[in-house]
Amino acid sequence: AVVSTQSTGGREERERMLGVGDDLGFQPSSFEDEAEFIDSKFSNQQIQMVEQNSRQVQQRDEEIRKIVESIAELQSIFKDIANLVADQGTILDRIDYNLEQTVVKVEDGLQQLQKAEQHQKRGRKCIFIIFLALIVLCMIVALFAVKLKK
């Protein structure tokens, strides 16, 4: 019968690979029996190779885990960059809009300055005409005053 736990499943797999089982009439019953059995069937060099391969597998597993973590960090960084780019795009759109509004308002201001200049020129003409009219009026009053004294 196959037991569904990992440790016995691994043991059964090793036993199957070694050719141990019901065929030989021997089944290790505990971890110590299994270790003795493995020691009896494998040379020291083979055991060292298995241990070395196990360490390499663990190292590779750790390296893969670190790579996965690095990829997750990169994903987070790229999401942050995407958010920053979107925010900057919004800011650039606002700057562009504000520049367009500035151009419109400067053009309106220029038109108002031109109108003010025209009004100022007209105002100068009016003041000059009024000043001349006052001088003429003063001369007329002075002539009447001189005629009346005579």
Tell me what the structure shows.
With 150 residues, the chain is mostly helical. It is 87% helix and 0% strand. The protein has three helices and no strands. It has helices at 6-18, 31-41, 44-149. The longest helix is centred in the middle third of the chain and has 106 residues, at 44-149. The protein is rod-shaped. Mean pLDDT is 81; it is low at 1-9 and 20-26.
Strand segment count: 0
Structural class designation:
mainly alpha
Oligomer: single chain
The residue-averaged pLDDT reads 81
How far from one another are the termini? 155 Å
Total DSSP helices: 3
Order of helices and strands: HHH
Percent in strands: under 5%
Give the overall shape, derived from the CA principal axes.
Answer: rod-shaped
| CA-based gyration radius | 52 Å
How helical, in percent, are the residues?
Answer: over 70%
The low-pLDDT segments are 1-9, 20-26
Features of this protein?
rod-shaped; 150 residues; disordered N terminus; 0% strand; mainly alpha; 3 helices
Structure in a nutshell:
With 150 residues, the chain is mainly alpha-helical.
Question: What layout of secondary structure does this protein have?
Answer:
Elements: H1 6-18, H2 31-41, H3 44-149
